[in-house]
Amino acid sequence: MSDLFGGTPDTQEPIESSQEGAPLADRMRPRTLTEYVGQQHLLGPGKVLDPAREGWNGQSLILWGPPGVGKTTLARLIAASSGLRFVAYSAVLSGIKEIRTVMAEAADWRARHGKGTLVFVDEIHRFNKAQQDAFLPFVERGDILLIGATTENPSFEVNSALLSRCRALLLEPLAPEDLVQLLRRALEAPHGLQALELSVDDDLLLAMAHASDGDGRRALTLLETAAAIAGPAARLTPEHVREGLQGKVLHYDKSGEEHFNLISALHKSVRNSDADATLYWLTRMMDAGEDGMYLARRMIRMASEDIGLADPFALRVSLDAAEAFHQLGYPEGRLALVQAAVYLARAPKSNALYTAHAEAQRDVQATSADPVPKHLRNAPTDLMRQSGYGKGYRYVHDDPAARDEMTCLPERLSGKRYFAAPKRPAKPKRSAKSDGA
């Protein structure tokens, strides 16, 4: 019986040699785990995937990480070490019909040969819940060992029933030194660029690695492009690389996890009064194309949540920056956002308003909606006044003692204290020299 991709399953090889003329990144895929670069937190001695070097018989896996860090290659290498029949397909191109066909073949293969099938699903997050559920009984029975690859957080994109049957592993962006190793190997490998006899300084390889942001595919593509511009037997120069790069493209997803990671870093840098980190994260988000009004709205929130009455002017600065950006947009409005963000980072901090509001909100939710005390009620009619509305109210401008003696909370919350006014930092003493003397 043949599988969906042609050929006989018992002779199908997970790692195939790339055809001549294929992109460099494809030609340079590692053939063995020894050639694999990076992810030592998973593949190092004693780590979770170290047994795969001798043959993988472990549980199903979800490989989660950004593009170009080796998810697909790692899945294929694990499949090669496992000795299991291997089937791979993409969730972009397949539907429930194809899944059921593969699962039926896997069950039949196990019945006839006594071993399972390793099924690799690229971009598994693109399958809906029903499609993901179709794997469950086959994973449970051992008909298949499932390896899914995803760039999205599996906590949100893989249903809980399937996730509970798999081990989710996070793959990290490749370190610059890992990328330099990949690039150097590509320059020297017969199936890479060896025939071009190029020479490249280590410093330039490191610059290419930094420009690739941990993405091995991007690094190799940049090298291939720069090599094509330079020509055979050339020395690669920064000009070749800049021409090949054509501007750095930052990894960013406005609705995905990276968006929330970056805005979290920005907010926490402001809260920690780190103006340099604030400037870096804000610039990185703007350069990646983040909506400036979203950034402005978040800074308005920061001004209230983390600064509050320690510097009430911070809110005004944030509102003005939002209005300036609304009027100017990119690129003219960038500096208004930068000005506001650095002001917020350098401003004194207090979360007294935030915590007071949160505690009051808890009491509103946890206690009865008690009537307004009668002395605080509005009394526009005789009947209301006869019913005691407004009785006992004391006008604090004429009766200053009312501030401490008259309660304004419901009786069950009388004496409750929510707000502690933030202390203003002492102003530094000015020396004669600071006055220009």
Measured between the Cα atoms of the first and last residue, the distance is 94 Å
Work out the helicity level.
40-55%
Q: Order of strands in the sheet with the most strands?
A: 2-3-4-1-5
**Total tally of structural domains:** 4
Largest sheet: 5 strands, parallel
Gross morphology is flat
Please describe the topology of this protein:
Layout: H1 24-27, H2 40-43, E1 60-64, H3 71-82, E2 85-90, H4 96-113, E3 117-122, H5 129-133, H6 136-141, E4 144-150, H7 154-157, H8 160-163, E5 166-170, H9 176-188, H10 202-211, H11 216-230, H12 238-245, H13 257-271, H14 275-287, H15 292-307, H16 313-328, H17 334-346, H18 352-366, H19 382-386, H20 402-405
Helix pairs in contact: 9-10, 9-11, 11-12, 13-14, 13-15, 14-17, 15-16, 15-17, 16-17
Please, could you describe this protein's structure?
The protein is α/β, with parallel strands linked by helices and 437 residues long. The chain has four domains: 9-170, P-loop containing nucleotide triphosphate hydrolases (Rossmann fold); 176-245, Helicase, Ruva Protein, domain 3 (Orthogonal Bundle), CATH 1.10.8; 257-346, Up-down Bundle (Zinc Finger, Delta Prime, domain 3); 372-409, no CATH class. It is 46% helix and 7% strand. The protein contains 20 helices and five strands. It has helices at residues 24-27, 40-43, 71-82, 96-113, 129-133, 136-141, 154-157, 160-163, 176-188, 202-211, 216-230, 238-245, 257-271, 275-287, 292-307, 313-328, 334-346, 352-366, 382-386, 402-405, and strands at 60-64, 85-90, 117-122, 144-150, 166-170. A five-stranded parallel sheet has the order 2-3-4-1-5, with helices on both faces. Helix 4 (96-113) links the parallel strand 2 (85-90) and strand 3 (117-122). Helix 9 crosses helix 11. It is flat, with a radius of gyration of 32 Å. The chain starts with 23 loop residues before the first helix and ends in a 32-residue tail after the last helix. 31% of the residues are buried.
